[in-house]
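Consortium newsletter contribution from the modelling node. Members have asked for a concrete example of what our holo predictions look like. Here is one, prepared for the magnesium ion complex that several groups have been discussing at recent meetings.
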Amino acid sequence: MEEVGTGLLDRLDAMQRVAASAPGGPLLIVAGPGTGKTRTLTHRIAYLCAELNVYPEHCLAITFTRRAAEELRARLDTLLGPVAEDVTVGTFHSLGLTILRENAGAAGLPADFRIADDTERAQARAEAGDNEAAYLKLLRGEGLVDLDELVTLPVRLLRDDPELVERYRDRWRWVFVDEYQDVDAVQYELLRLLSPADGNLCAIGDPDQAIYSFRGADVSYFLRFSEDFVDARLVRLTRNYRSSPPILAAAVQAIGPTTLVRGRRLDPARLDPEAPLVGRYPAASVADEAGFVARTVDELVGGVSHRSLDTGRIDGRSSSVSFSDIAVLYRTDAQAAPIVDALTRAGIPVQKRSHDRLRDRPGVAAIARELRHASGLGGSLAARVRLAGQVLADRFAMPTLDATPAVAPADIWAAVEVLTPLAQRCGDDLPLFLSQIATGAEVDALDPRAEAVTLLTLHAAKGLEFPVVFLVGAEDGLLPLRLPGATPDDGEVAEERRLFFVGLTRAQDRLYVSHVRRRLRHGSERDCAPTPFLDAIDAGLFERLGETEPRRPKDRQLRLL
Ligand code: ATP
Ligand code: MG
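And here is the predicted structure:
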């Protein structure tokens, strides 16, 4: 045991070690990007279990996205081995679902309640009109709950039942929350119910990366942690292990005096003096910007086409970059298409995170319904999915029969294809499978090992890191985002700046920032200025790339003649 614990903490720096081995009681870890917060969190859980005889089943670790939860689970598996399975790891939604499943009766739900799919929600909405209570009653009549209720119902249940609160506090004696800066009011209340004011709650986060207030998240819960929890211990981590010094310096300057962390420090742990500057590319057009990304990717990867067996990353010394090392980040999904086009035309593989949820696909909804109703289907879950697809396709081919789940066979087979890996991951647990679909599993969860350039929004990039990052569309109007007829207020601009900060700090070795001069926005071509957030960054940190002279009016006239 001793060596396990010591070995574990050896992989942390002094402050990370203080955080990971802190005694029980409320603990707040405040630290900037890339300082090892998530790493410290997993090591703390592992340390408590391996060294202090904390039972893994007494630990509850909560994150915000399914992907982050999977990542956490994987890291715990590596550190703890099979006992990691006893740690409860999940999102607020999956935690709420667990509590409701265990107390369905008390919550006024049938034991086999399910989460309403989109069709069912739309139907109930149409029937209920504007009446929210009537809407929920209709769902309830069908044994359904709305997705949002996965957190509100457990809160109501616990609020009214102190004994139940005690039971859960006894089960989860150690609670950990990553990205605590993004909790909303209901999630916060759930945490307060699960964790007494002097409980073993470990909250981790960075107020300067609070980017979800548009969804109701409120960074003030983070800022008042020590008022809410008795004798809270505070640990700050200040060494950034992720980014090269120029990238880190640019990011720190970008967040600048608007930081929400008093006395914020972020020092580079990496000291590579040869690290390249931040590339800045002023593009003439969207096509020019996309071409720049494709060309640069090709140079970075293609330039070392002899890399074959060399799996090393670029680090300023070796130049081998693989497609999976590269991410393109943007503010709005609409920006992805020209980049995907240009990369694909250049023969560069891409994977794009889609916000398409499985349950939004007609074929998926039909298969889920078929599985629920047709208990006679046998075999493994994956085989049952295929069989359900066949049943639906056959039904479609016989138009004389009732055609009400009539979904086109192409949609059905596409759904079978995307559902099969999920079915395999769920073993033979049908309720788990259905709840994964209902709680918003994404169609194409990104595969970090896929040999492809990753495209994703700045919001989706939170918590991730890549050796090479392109931040495209760094323009006023996109960052900060301006929607037609609305001017962002100071608070919104500050949040957009934090989003820019999140984007810059995803990069490890190379960062490229680009902006275009003219872009189609809200239906017409507009002149664009670079984002004002760039003004805070020292010009000396940039290498200006491909500077193109703006076309002189004379040229244009000549062409007209
Ligand atoms: P973010 O705010 O972006 O979520 P974070 O604080 O959670 O960042 P991590 O993702 O945990 O940071 O760590 C960033 C990177 O630094 C990872 O690659 C991690 O392995 C590495 N790292 C963290 N701590 C150390 C350390 N003590 N020694 C070496 N590498 C470290
Ligand atoms: Mg993290």
